[in-house]
Design brief:
This protein has helices at about 1-35, 45, 55-60, 75-85, 85-95, 115-125, 140-150, 175-185, 205-220, 230-240, 260-270, 290-300, 305-315, 330-335, 340-345, 350-355, 375-385, and strands at about 95-100, 100-105, 110, 130-135, 160-165, 190-195, 220-230, 250, 270-275, 320. Helix 7 (about 140-150) links the parallel strand 4 (about 130-135) and strand 5 (about 160-165). The relative contact order is 0.12. The strands form two sheets. The chain has an eight-stranded parallel β-sheet, covered by helices on one side. It contains 17 helices and ten strands. The protein folds into two domains: about 1-85, no CATH class; about 95-385, TIM Barrel (Alpha-Beta Barrel), CATH 3.20.20. The longest helix is centred in the N-terminal third of the chain and has 34 residues, at about 1-35.
Amino acid sequence: MFVSLMLQQMARWVAVVCLLSILPACLGYLNSQSLFSRRRRTSSNTLCMRMHDTSRRQFLQAGVLLGASPLLPLPQDAAHAVDMRWPELLAAQGSKDVGGVKLPAVGFGTYNTKQGIAMQAVEIALSQGVRHIDTAAAYGNEQDIGKAWRSSGLSRSEIFLSSKLDRQQLGKGKVREALLHSLQDLGTDYLDVFYIHSPLSSKQVILESWSELQELKEEKLVRAVGVSNFGVKQLEELRKENLPVPSINQIEVSPFNQRRQIVSWCEANGCAVMSSSWSRLSNKETGAKNWPKLKEIAKSKGITAAQTLIAWSLHRGLLCIPRSGTETEKEVIAIKENSPGGVAAIKLTDQELKQLDSLDEMLASGALGRTDGWSKVRVLVLLESSNLFGRRT
């Protein structure tokens, strides 16, 4: 009898110890699940804690690393942004008119972001006050983005969604079908911006696709139409055919490749310019020789190199869409650092802008500078069948 009672008591203690050991993980999971279901006007004190007051152990227990949970400890300024009314939030982060659409100056890009990771990254970005999410059919993550924004508690009118037509989706009769597919995956009945992803198609195909995009805009299935990776020659071809000038051109722009001719053309013709990610500028294969100078400026201001690039873009009147994953703690923190709240207070002096402007070495991280990470072999094959350099249509 005594032995039986002792065994029962030991079993109770083991159960208590097990419960206490898993409690932090359970709390982190429950907190992450409830974060996006709460109303945006929930007190920021209950939702957030300052990141610099959070130890690594607390960070891990909150389930941030390795995709365990999308929860990110929000800094106080970002929490305030989430609690703001929509017009106030838009005014605070700045915007630019893109074909009648007031597009937030700082968005979030999802290029090269896998399914699952994309959903978590977008959830975190939205929690940080980001309101413009950029994707593309070629990225293969539109369904994830649709799930992320629908679970955020935000209404569709409070979010800007942009996507792009892949090369295989271009051509007469194909554009509408591609759009409807993207709308279904994104869980929406319209896009704020719809792009032609690349000029690496024949002139005829580009013109047919651009004309069909105008029809979709008239039907209010898209609010604005744009192009991506287009140079001056391709932009001029649209204008020569008496077609509307794109509302926006998304290209890779940085202090290391300032694309001055393209930017000047766009500014002169009412076409906004959006700078896309610079994720490969600092690696060994395509590294910028002036990268250390950028790092010096960033260090002197107590900010990151990425924040410096974003600040430079904003000072030059460009829109930008930084990106990051969620597979490491560093990546998750980068989403917060590069959010509207993370860069809004950064001001570059005239001297710093002059230094950054002097770094131009015409370096592009993608092959030919406009291929969005495509292989050089694939680019050369596509160029052979295009008229970019006067070849057959």
